[in-house]
Specification:
3-stranded antiparallel sheet, alpha+beta
């Protein structure tokens, strides 16, 4: 009986964690819905939910939202540019 209670507790914890991930994903989707695939300028209203953008290497970045959602993106050669 104790084993079943332990399993149930684990399953309830997993369920709560899954619901939290779903909420974070939906929040990110809501922000990104309707946004052009090619972003050419900084738009404060779009980037307000962003916590940070991390450059992983010359071809990859990681975008972290305040909600905790992280998206890793590989950049195409034509997308890479340096501006000061």
């Amino acid at each position: 009986m104790t084993e079943l209670r332990g399993r149930r507790t684990q399953e309830e914890k997993l369920h709560r964690e899954n619901k939290q991930v779903c909420r974070r994903t939906k929040a990110a989707e809501a922000v990104l819905t309707g946004v052009a695939a090619e972003i050419t300028e900084w738009k404060e209203d779009l980037y307000q939910p962003l916590e940070k953008v991390t450059v992983l290497d010359e071809a990859r970045i990681k975008v972290t939202f305040h909600s905790g959602v992280e998206i890793e993106q590989t950049l195409e050669k034509g997308e890479r540019s340096v501006t000061a």
